[in-house]
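Write out structure tokens for Internalin.
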Amino acid sequence: MKTKTLLFLALAALSLTTACHKAAHEVPNITLTVDPGRKIFLSFAGETDTTSIRIQCGKLDTSFVIGKKRTPARYFIADAEKMTIHGAITAFNCSTNGGGITAIDCSRDTMLRSLECHDNALTTLNVGGCSSLRILECYSNRLASLDVTRCPALERLNCSDNLLTDLNLSKCPKLEMIACINNGLTKLDVTMCSKLSVLYCYRNKLTELQLRGCAWLTELSCGKNYLPNLDFSGCNSLRTAYCCDNDFSYAATEELYRSLPDRTGEDEPGHIFILNEDALPPGRTGAGNEGIATQKHWEVLWCRGDW
């Protein structure tokens, strides 16, 4: 009997120890790949007003408490190549660390709602498990790929000034703003982004842009690409479109005008920037039959600026 009791107690202790290890392992965390010796500036907001944070990086091991309000940025000196931040973080900002951060793994922080990691030297960004992520600002890095297919709550994405050649947004139906300027994208489909209001995709290599049915789209900037055509069918809220420096033929431009939403009865006309004197054949004064657009209460304007 005594033996059985001792065995039961041993098994209970083992079970409790395993549960504790599992609970510790499941604490949300974010891991950075950093340059040892560098000051790494970080800012956070927590799930509660008493959120415990622990940062480990080589000999660096520090703990503190944060609240729901984002903290001012403070630096931590990297003592190894991996810096892990443990805790229920809802907003994380590690921006403008230059070459100090080259990779981020947020996949184990399902509570994360806002991630700002722009102006670094990122070549890898893992947001695979960030099911609550609403804001992602990862512009001005060196990302050759970005997977947001497991971020269904995403509302705002700025991944401009990277090295992206593909961007799958089919699993992000809540996106309201997308900026993917100055990448190497060859095609972009936002037809599943039913709440999209603003799209900036200029200075890519786009030969295909799918917009049909984006009923809430109000502003588009798609200049400096290689688009042979563009269809605005179903984009009934569109007010402004910058389409300069693409490969529209005269016929394709007319079709583009025909697909514009009818703004007759609206106080303000729509504005489409598409006329480019340098791109017109000799003797031609317009890109297409502008009357098709003006009859729908659109102003067809000359290109200016970098759109």
